[in-house]
Amino acid sequence: MNLTVAPSLSRIHSLHCARCHTPYSPFELQSVSACCQQPLVADYDLHYPPTPAEAIDQADSSMWRYGALLPLLAEANKVTLGEGMTPLLQLPRLGSKYGFSALTLKDEGQNPTGSFKARGLSMAISKAKELGAQGCIIPTAGNAGVAMAAYCARGGLSATVVMPRHTPEAFKEECYWYGAQVELVDGLINDCAARVRQLNAGGELLDISTLKEPYRLEGKKTMGYEIAEQLGWQLPDVLLYPAGGGTGLIGIWKAFQEMKAMGWLAPETALPRMVAVQAENCRPLYDTYFGYQANSLNYNGRPTLANGLAVPRPLGEPLMLDVLRESQGTVVSISEEGMLEGMRELGQQEGLFVAPEGAAVWMAARQLLSTGWLRADERILLLNTGSGQKYMSNVAGRAWA
Ligand SMILES: *Cc1c(COP(=O)(O)O)cnc(C)c1O
Ligand SMILES: [Zn+2]
Prior knowledge:
Elements: E1 12-17, E2 23-24, E3 40-44, H1 52-55, E4 88-90, H2 92-98, E5 102-107, H3 117-130, E6 135-139, H4 143-155, E7 158-164, H5 169-177, E8 181-185, H6 189-199, E9 206-207, H7 215-230, E10 238-242, H8 247-262, E11 273-279, H9 284-289, H10 317-327, E12 330-334, H11 336-350, H12 356-370, E13 379-384, H13 392-395
Parallel strand pairs: 5-13, 6-7, 6-9, 7-8, 10-11, 10-13, 11-12
Antiparallel strand pairs: 1-2, 1-3, 4-5
Helix pairs in contact: 3-4, 3-7, 4-5, 7-8, 11-12
Bound molecules: pyridoxal-5'-phosphate (PLP) and zinc ion.
Residues 115, 117, 143-144, 210, 242-248, 308, 311, 355, 357, 385-386 line the site of pyridoxal-5'-phosphate.
């Protein structure tokens, strides 16, 4: 039997409800599951699993090199700006200052539109186009809206972006330059979601909200494939991620499971302990994880410098809790001052101007080392999810403590 796989040929075969596993078709536009109103998750045919050499398109230096494990059916529908394959950077100066022996940062700030949202939106807008959507709408804390506006422009779809009025100007302005309609709302992303339901009551637009369509997750999952490939099919001991809606956390873990099922990981590779990092101002997952509330359905958050973490009621909370439990991970929350301190350290010691979300992740590593949850000799991977540039108006003048 010929098991060679055309690298770009998608092996997707179905979707399932994250709660009850009822199957859904991947060949039509989908939202949340009709059975449980929960996220839909994509499944691939991993029966004769391809090797990395068979499945990965080495000529493609974007996330689309993993096309066999992505849901797009026809190359012609791909909407790309060259997202993914971001560098893994060693942090030797900060490492030796605090005693870490193997400290690495994956710099997602180098993606098109300045954040890792590019991965999810490249994937989601490609599928929207493939399945015949004319226009898309999104409630956003900032970066997802910018990315959606860019990919819709590139794919020839209309874009409506609903974001909090207090979002830094650079996010709104960039959306205008991509030709998007922008609506400003008083409140946080959950208030924007309510406005989206109003604006799209007739359902003409495809709702690209986090985990309300199945494909942003698939784009974010490519971070997991890249981390493994870039480390020679090994994985770090601990991975720290700034969790808002949680697609990255859930997606990276999904990639690890898929690679494990396909036999891609080096023998005896343990999966990393996954750490979700939140802002003290908005830490629903932290409060649920540590038992301060049963769940975040009624959680109220406050704005934070880390816009991407201002997600008070994440739909994916149960899936995030699964990842934390299965990986023996934990949750950390970081103050606003802490994020500024982390931005200063990464800037001054390593030449990285990171988003406050990325700075929070670094501060969480420091905190977990000081409490002994992390050992100094473990291989630590920090995810910096965005560039600091769009946050400039909120952090200007704070480079000195
Ligand atoms: C959106 C965002 C996050 C949170 O991502 P989720 O997938 O919602 O968990 C973190 N950092 C930045 C910079 C973001 O834009
Ligand atoms: Zn269900």
